[in-house]
Amino acid sequence: MALPETLPEAEETLLALADRMRGAVAFDAKFVGIYSGGAWIAERLAQVIEGDHAVGYIDVSFYRDDFSRKGLKPEVKRTELPFAVEGATIVLIDDVLYTGRSVRAAINELFDFGRPARVELAVLVDRGGRELPVEATYAGIRLVVARDLSIVLSRNGEGKLVLGTEASGA
Amino acid sequence: MRNPQLNAAGDLTHLLTLEGLPAEIILRVLDTAVPFASIAEREVKKVPLLRGRSVFNLFFENSTRTRTTFEIAAKRLSADVINLNIGVSSTSKGETLLDTVDNLVAMNADMFVVRHSQSGAPHLIAAHLNRMGRTHVHVVNAGDGRHAHPTQGLLDLFTIRHYKKEFRELTVAIVGDVLHSRVARSLIHGLTTLGTPEVRVIGPKTLIPSAVQSLGVRVHHDMREGLAGCDVVVMLRLQSERMRGALLPSTGEYFKHYGLTGEKLALAKPDAIVMHPGPMNRGVEIESAVADGERSVILPQVTFGIAVRMAVMSILAGA
């Protein structure tokens, strides 16, 4: 499979994602970003999508399925969900949806805070390659990417989001 | 020779002492404990990180708080915890320490939390496991003789960092029975590794080890002089049970000179915090009004201790 000639502009893709969510997402849906890329996107979406969208953050490190192989990453962030998860509509937000394993971990973590009424998934990039039955409710763009490449979202000095690629470790 | 606490990749695989442990490893434990501290606020106070692993608490010496906090930490990580009360078990039938360990490894132990009255016992177990190629089995020292109590040292560092943020401008006083205190030794190593400019030990000559200056601390025998301008005051328990012979005239006399009172605490900085590893002897090393006062962080220390032990166990299990 070939890499697309050029990666899409992250900022444009973010607007496309916001357009797909607008009108479809519940007015009081909580936006929960998965660290680190998903956290940036969640904050941006909460600014541009009308409604009462409290923002929370999840670091899935304590719920990952590869702990036995990889151990704990050096900098684990604190999961912060400053609202009641019980009965809430939650939109999990991530930068790239690939195997679906991070989303599985995030859903498990979410349920340790309570029983949400509904959980949706919004991602900037859906690159296929799923290893679990997980699908995005909203995706900014769908891409086909070679297995040996990782798509990485970063934030430049001006706070703009930028998509790039890296040779993947696995 | 390689530091026996680190594996070939340089990752922490056993926690035996803070002496000689690089600052980045200490800071990693402190950083990792921050997200673990918030787990206590959740509806489900558990994460699945050590699911399916077995942690054996091997306590050859009595302890309630340390054993309990290790047990809670392991359970919050979803590990299975087995408490062995060794005093009434195999060793009293003549089994050696390493035979006990080998038997528990045969029962698929993944981690040993070891407290022993003999300095070096956890080290002996770790070296044995390394020699036998059991690199997936980890040892945590939960206090050995007068030598070290690294998780207490780490939780003390975590507490200081929580309230004071930065070590590089602090003056820390450790007061009392330094001679018998593995807590003091571990804390001193941690503080100096993290660049604390001034660490003082305060106590009577009979309770201060003669070579303590070699650890980079200043010795004060006058408590008022020693407390002046301190940011952190760490009180130690007077360990009467370890004392042989007359090191002190009386506990009343001791309190007069080295007990922490509100009046003496006033000599430290106005925002100084008061710590104590517990268990406390009220009226011996600390006045009740200070122990329960607004500058006391003695109970937060206990709470932080769980998060720090969770961090240590997860880092070791992931090595």
Fold and architecture overview:
The complex is a heterodimer of chains A (170) and B (319). Chain A is of the alpha/beta class and 170 residues long. In chain A, 23% of the residues lie in helices and 27% in strands. Chain B has 319 residues and is of the alpha/beta class. Chain B has two domains: 23-148 and 304-317, 3-Layer(aba) Sandwich (Rossmann fold), CATH 3.40.50.1370; 150-302, Aspartate/ornithine carbamoyltransferase (Rossmann fold, 3-Layer(aba) Sandwich). Chain B has eleven helices and nine strands. In chain B, strands 7-6-5-8-9 form a five-stranded parallel sheet. A four-stranded parallel sheet of chain B has the order 2-1-3-4, sandwiched between helices. In chain B, helix 2 links the parallel strand 1 and strand 2 (80-85). In chain B, helix 1 (23-37) packs across helix 11, helix 5 (150-164) crosses helix 6 (182-193) and helix 5 packs across helix 11 (298-317). The longest helix of chain B is centred in the last third of the chain and has 20 residues, at 298-317. The two termini of chain B are 20 Å apart. The model of chain B has no long low-confidence stretch (mean pLDDT 93). The chains are: A alpha/beta (170), B alpha/beta (319). Chains A and B meet through helix 4 of A and helix 1 and helix 11 of B.
Instruction: Strand order, main sheet of chain A: write it out.
Output: 2-1-3-4-5
Mean pLDDT rating of chain B? 93
**What is the terminal-to-terminal distance of chain A?**
17 Å
Order of helices and strands of chain A: HEHEHEHEEEE
CATH class of chain A: Alpha Beta
Determine the strand fraction of chain A and express it as a percent band. 25-35%
Describe the global form of chain A.
globular
Q: Average pLDDT across residues of chain A?
A: 93
Order of strands across the main sheet of chain B: 7-6-5-8-9
Number of strands of chain B: 9
Overall structural domain count of chain A: 1
Radius of gyration of chain B in whole Å, from Cα? 19 Å
Biggest sheet record of chain B: 5 strands, parallel
Helix content of chain A: 10-25%
Name the CATH architecture of the largest domain in chain B.
3-Layer(aba) Sandwich
Structural class of chain A: alpha/beta
Number of strand elements of chain A: 7
